[in-house]
Amino acid sequence: MSLDLPLRPELRGLSPYGAPQLDVPVLLNVNENPYPPSAALVDDVATSVAQAAAGLNRYPDRDALPLREDLAEYLARESGVRLPAGCIWAANGSNEVMLHLLQAFGGPGRTALSFAPTYSMYPEYARDTCTDWVAARREEDFSLDPGRAVAAVAEHAPAVVLLPSPNNPTGTALPASTLLAVLDAARQVPGGCVVVVDEAYAEFRREGTPSALELLEDHPHLAVSRTMSKAFGLAGARVGYLAASTEVVDALQVVRLPYHLSAVTQAVARAALRHTGSLMEQVASLRSERDRTVAWLRDRGLQAVDSDANFVLFGVLPDRVAVWQGLLDRGVLVRQTGPEGWLRVSIGTPAEMTAFREALVEVA
Ligand code: PMP
């Protein structure tokens, strides 16, 4: 007899989200930092976790206040924008931060809007919070035309706009003028609209590319999401955070689960924040490797999108599945994402990028 579960109809037949986790020598598919934590950081994490472990009979600090203070301090150093800890929110990866945003501001009868190609998790947050999902289009070159973006906001009257900058999978960042145009349009939406700028890859942006953090002061309906999964090389620890007005942060406090961020996670994140200097040196070398990769792909006659992130979208391949498989057969895993014909490669160590180039020469 078949089991009759009351699964929501929209979930029927769906597979869990996620890129394949394959045991391959060169992993360039999920935009991780390829460098494991330094010995000094591992030591610091071990000491901090041991201290946290001594108190594990108690629930963790529900407000994660020391961590939020450290994150505020980091943002002040990274971007020059000083915020009080009450304007910072932290959770288990920026995925959870953005789910909290949709839980607080989305919901039945409300719309979340983004511009495709965009981060593939956004429609999942929308689905899981029963929020209507609209993906308007970017231009052919993946840029976002401010006039069309404003028109889409006016047409769909979203409660939430999700703007990844730098965008995944294209690597392109939005100019401040476009962000300002969308923020202005959002202000006109009846009932209000929160604009989320997802800056998961902010630390990799090129000289002169702005951060939306600078716009927070004048825009209380702006929320800037960041993560420690990329530049900080802490994908395994699951720490993301948000900078926004206290009104937005207070709303997220209402929907979070009690004690959502474990004492161990908080300790690990605070330890990593003490090593920002050496981590940012790594970021600088990953940025150079990225620019070299773009130049090399173009030299080979392929298109490569200029990137402000730690990955490059390249193509256009007559058969991207065959190229993806050919690379995999040679021990290099990249991601099939974005429009047909394109592949995305994360920036690895110089040795990993050599392996990628050698494999690609054989297959494309
Ligand atoms: N935003 C974007 C644009 C991403 O690419 C990712 C990770 N791939 C995330 C958010 C989520 O990262 P995390 O949950 O690890 O912070």
Keywords:
364 residues; alpha/beta; 3-stranded antiparallel β-sheet; binds 4'-deoxy-4'-aminopyridoxal-5'-phosphate; amino-acid biosynthesis; PyrdxlP-dep_Trfase_small; pyridoxal phosphate
What does this structure look like?
39% of the residues lie in helices and 14% in strands. By secondary structure, it is an alpha/beta fold. The strands form three sheets. A seven-stranded mixed β-sheet has the order 2-8-7-6-5-3-4, with helices on both faces. Strand 9 (303-304) and strand 10 (311-315) form a beta hairpin. The protein is globular. The termini are far apart. The mean pLDDT is 97. 4'-deoxy-4'-aminopyridoxal-5'-phosphate binds next to helix 3.
List the helices and strands and how they pair.
Blueprint lengths: L25 E2 L11 H15 L11 H15 L8 E4 L1 H13 L5 E6 L5 H7 L3 E6 L8 H11 L3 E5 L11 H12 L6 E5 L23 E6 L12 E5 L1 H10 L7 H11 L2 H24 L3 E2 L6 E5 L4 H10 L2 E2 L9 E4 L3 H14 L1
Parallel strand pairs: 1-11, 3-4, 3-5, 5-6, 6-7
Antiparallel strand pairs: 2-8, 7-8, 9-10, 10-12
Helix pairs in contact: 1-8, 2-8, 3-4, 3-7, 5-6, 10-11
This protein binds 4'-deoxy-4'-aminopyridoxal-5'-phosphate (PMP).
The site of 4'-deoxy-4'-aminopyridoxal-5'-phosphate has 13 residues, from helix 3.
Short summary of the structure?
By secondary structure, this protein is an alpha/beta fold.
Structural class estimated from helices and strands: alpha/beta
| Percentage of residues in strands | 5-15%
Helix content: 25-40%
Low-confidence stretches: none
User: Can you summarize the main beta sheet?
Assistant: 7 strands, mixed
Strand tally is 12
- N-C termini distance: 50 Å
Radius of gyration: 21 Å
Q: Report the oligomer.
A: single chain
Mean of the pLDDT scores?
97
Number of helices: 11
Question: Order of strands across the biggest sheet?
Answer: 2-8-7-6-5-3-4
Query: What best-fitting shape do the alpha-carbon axes yield?
Result: globular
- Helix and strand succession? EHHEHEHEHEHEEEHHHEEHEEH
What small molecules are bound in this structure? 4'-deoxy-4'-aminopyridoxal-5'-phosphate
EC number: 2.6.1.9
GO molecular function: histidinol-phosphate transaminase activity; pyridoxal phosphate binding
Subunit structure: Homodimer.
Domain Aminotransferase class I/classII large: 26-360
